[in-house]
Specification:
- By secondary structure, the chain is mainly α.
- α24 packs parallel to α28.
- It contains 29 helices and seven strands.
- Helices cover about 60% and strands about 5% of the residues.
Length: about 675
């Protein structure tokens, strides 16, 4: 709110000549009034009041029009019993002339019923809320059933219903309540400390499991199951014949679907007006589908923007098209999908994803889209994890270096870090899948975990942050403690030191900074590789041998390679050791030892010291145990929905394999 006044006071006067004062109080006051007006318009109460006033004005104008007069008179004719409609006609000036005075005029200013729906629901709500502040689910259910009953009776008697069907959405009048909200049935005090702090699943964290149910709700449910009572009986319905008699009407009332069809000519008057946009969006949001026909490319893009502006929280929008007139819509949406077809490649060139047919959209979203989201979540978290662990090691070392800024690792060794660890996480980002395609298709509910952002929740990120601190401390101090005193010196001329000349003092010793830092760096690289393996849900083991000259082996060597182990063994660890020996060779034969100071470090580190290999084996395992302990504890006691489905899928696969084995044995 201070940007415009600041610009007017201190920036505008520097570039434009003005006879007025540089502070120009009138201009600043106008700017502040505009900002105040914008804040008022952003208030949801003000926006809804403006929408209501605009709607009332539109209704009043409609009732004054010839079409409104005609509809009002027809309605009076239908509601008036025992009276004849002599006739209606238009005069030359397009005004209606009533040729009989047999109609009453008491409802001439009353709008059609469609504009007064939910009035009885609001009145019933006010009566029921007179003594309480929260509406119980049982009262809501009773009102809904009363609405169905009264509507059915009114249809048979030819009278207006006592409670209209909009009572079914009466939960919208509950302060802070939402349709389908069952939070009042659970007792949040039953949540444990670990459920509040450690659990990542939303239902567990918010206390919405069976064990969190209130005592009266649980006892009512158990008694209903014991007495074989139905939900309708619990709601107060005792006449089963009456329930069966209006079953068809209940289905029609509850399960009816609504659709909105709007043309481009109508959108031309709506789009661009904030009040009308919010009004039409309120109508569209209550429909199962919205069809916009005969719209221009610009109107398509504005419809997408309408959804992005008026849905809270902001949704992820997707637009799909196959022609040049869909380009604006595709670019306006968060995700654009182009269909390559007879209308050219303009939509494909402007989209994020391209498919050949519209029917491929389901697999793109529910299967490949879900896999891609999970993969990208792991890649992003691992990218931050590996870099922050390195920074943590450097920060810890500064406490021993008097905060002098001395780096723990050699500059070229540290620069190679991202090149060495990138291939395993790249394979995870390409091949990883937690659930197979067939299981996802048969259980589309697993897609809900992506909509809830289950893999990038704050609790999940906090777990990674805690793991970063633990791994940094474990890697540093489990290497520092064995090496801090005499651990840097060789103990004997045996083992790796056998055959080394005793006349070369210092050979095999490693108390210098480069060997100490590279020893820690060894453990860091192996720990990163272990972490990728633990996060991978699909390990590509391939076929052996991958390269063969035999015929009839099926797929080519690209599909036969064990990509996970190739990335782990050759792309990460093998590349690292190759780099160390190459770097030492450059330091020995290079032109300047100050530019490549890695002189005989690899020889002393790996070829002369057995403690290096002991630490390389044990420290990453200790760091991995911390990770495995947290994962096992979380999966056993606080599993996510995805983890539960993975266990179900694993059991299904085991049963199917056993069944195939039994069938094969019977066949033999």
């Amino acid at each position: 709110s201070q940007v415009k006044p600041f610009f007017r006071k201190y920036i505008f006067c520097c570039f434009f000549d003005s006879e007025k004062s540089i502070y120009d109080d009138d201009a600043i006051r106008r700017i502040q009034e505009e900002e105040t007006q914008e804040e008022i318009m952003d208030n949801p109460v003000v926006r809804r009041r403006n929408v209501r006033e605009r709607a009332e004005k539109i209704i009043a104008d409609y009732l004054k029009s010839p079409d409104g007069e005609l509809e009002r008179l027809k309605k009076q004719a239908r509601e008036t019993s025992g009276k004849q409609v002599i006739g209606l006609s238009h005069n030359t000036s397009q005004h209606l002339v009533l040729r009989s005075d047999s109609f009453d005029d008491e409802d001439t200013d009353r709008p059609p019923d469609v504009f007064e729906r939910a009035t009885s629901a609001k009145a019933a709500m006010e009566d029921l809320q007179s003594g309480t502040s929260v509406m119980s689910s049982s009262k809501l259910r009773q009102i809904a059933i009363a609405s169905m009953t009264s509507h059915q009776r009114s249809m048979s008697l030819g009278s207006l219903p006592i409670v209209d069907e909009e009572t079914l959405s009466i939960e919208s009048f509950v302060p802070g309540g939402k349709k389908g909200d069952i939070s009042s049935s659970f007792d949040k005090k039953k949540r444990t400390v670990l459920e509040k702090v450690f659990a990542t699943d939303r239902e567990t964290r918010h206390g919405k499991l069976n064990k969190h149910l209130k005592a009266e709700i649980k006892s009512k449910t158990l008694s209903a199951q014991a007495n074989q009572e139905t939900i309708e009986t619990l709601a107060g319905i005792t006449d089963i014949d009456d329930l069966q008699g209006r079953a068809l009407h209940i289905v029609k009332t509850v399960d009816q679907q609504r659709a909105l069809v709007i043309e481009g000519a109508a959108l031309r008057h709506i789009l661009g007006d904030e009040v009308l946009e919010e009004m039409i969006f309120a109508v569209a949001s209550g429909c199962d589908s919205v069809i916009a026909c005969r719209v221009s490319p610009k109107q398509k893009a504005l419809l997408v923007r309408l959804v992005r502006n008026y849905v809270n929280p902001t949704p992820v929008t997707l637009a799909i098209g196959d022609g040049a007139n869909d380009v604006g819509m595709i670019q306006e949406a968060h995700v654009g999908v182009g269909i390559s077809g007879l209308e050219g490649q303009q939509a494909v060139n402007s989209s994020d994803f391209a498919i050949a047919q519209f029917r491929y959209l389901e697999e793109l979203l529910l299967i490949h889209g879900r896999w891609a989201f999970i993969r990208m979540s792991k890649v992003v978290l691992f990218s931050f994890y590996k870099n922050v662990v390195v920074c943590g090691l450097l920060i810890i070392f500064q406490g021993f270096a008097l905060f002098s800024g001395t780096t723990l690792f050699d500059q070229w060794v540290l620069s190679s870090f991202n090149f060495i660890v990138f291939l395993p996480i790249l394979m995870l980002g390409i091949f990883d899948r937690d659930l197979e395609k067939e299981y996802v298709r048969s259980n589309p509910v697993v897609f809900y975990s992506s909509r809830r952002n289950e893999h990038l929740t704050l609790r999940f990120i906090i777990r990674w942050v805690i793991l970063i601190v633990i791994h940094a401390l474990v890697i540093f101090f489990l290497n520092y403690l064995p090496l801090k005193n005499e651990g840097g010196y060789t103990s004997a001329f045996d083992g790796l030191m056998s055959g080394v000349s005793r006349n070369q003092p210092g050979d095999g010793e490693g108390s210098d900074l480069q060997i100490f830092g590279t020893t820690i760096y060894n453990s860091l690289i192996v720990t990163m590789a272990y972490k990728v393996l633990f996060e991978t849900r699909t390990i590509v083991i391939g076929w052996f041998p991958a390269f063969t000259c035999r015929k009839g082996v099926g797929e080519g060597y690209i599909n036969r390679l064990a990509w996970t182990w190739v990335a782990f063994a050759y792309g990460s660890l093998g590349l690292y050791f190759f780099f160390l020996y190459t770097y030492q060779l450059i330091g020995q034969t290079g032109p300047s030892s100050s530019f490549f100071p890695f002189y005989y470090v690899t020889l002393h580190l790996l070829n002369r010291r057995s403690i290096t290999w002991m630490l390389l084996l044990l420290v990453p395992i200790a760091a991995a145990l911390c990770d495995v302990t947290g994962k096992v504890f979380g999966n056993m006691y606080f599993p996510t929905q995805t983890q539960i489905h993975m266990e179900i899928a694993s059991e299904d696969n085991a049963r199917s394999k056993k069944k195939k084995g039994d069938t094969k044995e019977k066949a033999n």
